[in-house]
Here is the input.
Amino acid sequence: MNKRFGKNDFLLFAGFLMLAVVILVVYLFHQAPTASYAVITVDGRVYGTYELSDSQTIEIKEDGVVTNVVRIADGTVFMERADCPDQLCVKQGKKNHDQENIVCLPNKVVVTVYAEDEAAYDSIAN
Ligand SMILES: [Zn+2]
Here is the structure.
């Protein structure tokens, strides 16, 4: 066993530390930008696109019956109500970061939020 804590060990440690910092920075950086609009799809078809700046309630109807109620408030979107048995979509809470989504599997409803202009964010990054 080599008990010495030599220069190489220090470099290795420093290297790990640097790596950790880099990962942290990348992670923080990849905190997706704040979303500005939501796209709702039902069974793969676009149901509608909604600005997150517009507080509103969107009723998703299937054959005239409201299956899901999506609420936009304070720049976030959440599933206010759903007639699905699992209620997982309601439990997913509020979303407001680029490409986050709320999925209601039983009703095939997907709400995805997007930042307005990803390219603009990329250019800030570089
Ligand atoms: Zn659901």
Notes: Residues 7-29 form the longest helix (23 residues).
